[in-house]
Write a structure and sequence with these properties.
236 residues, three-stranded parallel β-sheet, three-stranded antiparallel β-sheet, globular
Amino acid sequence: MNHDISNANDFLTSSKKSVIFITLGTTKVHILKENGCVVANCHKQPGKLFETKVLSLSTIIESLRHAISVCKALNKDIQIVFTVSPVRHTRDGIIENSLSKSTLLCAVHALKDEFPEFVSYFPAYEYMIDELRDYRWYEEDMIHPSKLAREFFLSKFLSSYTTADTQDLCEKISKINNNINHKPRFPETEAYRKHLSSTILAMLEMQDKHGIDFSSDIDKLQNYYTSTNVSKDPIV
């Protein structure tokens, strides 16, 4: 975790113009009893070590305002995009969840109005609640967005924040990923060899044109082919 934080800090300070996406989930926080600090229980420690608290609107705005100032100190050209998670915290209660999400939305829009030059909002929550109302957009737990819903969010996100060229690139990467994850019924056939060959050539082209590293995926496909075929010759 510390390594990831260090990498993120290096990226923010070295990139000319960076974008940070901050997703807010709930106004409920865990406080470590031994020191009174607000923490994330990432290591699944016993609940008895913590007490919970619901943050007020003013506290949330002030905390996020401080986070924004820290980000701007690292990189003055940074852009910040807030989202509110559409995943409902039903364990806290349906009414409590609605109040929590509403408070987060108020906080985000207050900051968006305060810093219109570099703070924006992506309405994932509104898409889920207002547009994707049918249960087919949810997983079996009726809480988390389904794969179809996630693809819908991605489409909306790309159209809002990326150029046509980037969207075309993402489509090509998605096709490559689908080909990588394809599980053949007859891996020993010439047709599958051609499938692997075209996929690897597409990855090599992507590496050459866009600097995207597919080396581990290329090795994976090559190793899979040689382990399931009599021929040990390279695919390409």
